Amino acid sequence: MRVLVTGSAGFIGSHVADALREHGHEPVGYDVREDPGADVRDPVAVARALDGVDAVCHQAAMVGLGDGFADAAEYVSRNDLGTAVLLAAAAGAGVRRLVLAGSMVVYGEGRY
């Protein structure tokens, strides 16, 4: 299976790509750290990346807690808009398999 792995240069994404490869799949890396044009907010670039892909494993995200509300617009742009662009493009390309990662930012910090 050919799998687009967004955030493939990150900690989790790189391990996902390795595991896919070890199990006989073909990971297709997509990460702005490796290619500045690989931005999940760019519908044209995302559509190109999805060409011939059977599944998507979406790990791309702006991570960390940031500096509070000063970073809110950038987080929303990269994480929310980027995910929406990716999902729309995947649906348009007929990709029917998706693994979507989440984090503590979605769920909030638990009690320790």
Automatic annotation (TrEMBL):
Residues 3-110 form the NAD-dependent epimerase/dehydratase domain. Pfam families: Epimerase (PF01370). SUPFAM superfamilies: NAD(P)-binding Rossmann-fold domains. InterPro entries: Epimerase_deHydtase, NAD(P)-bd_dom_sf. Belongs to the NAD(P)-dependent epimerase/dehydratase family. PANTHER family: DTDP-D-GLUCOSE 4,6-DEHYDRATASE-RELATED. This is NAD(P)-dependent oxidoreductase. It comes from Streptomyces coelicoflavus.
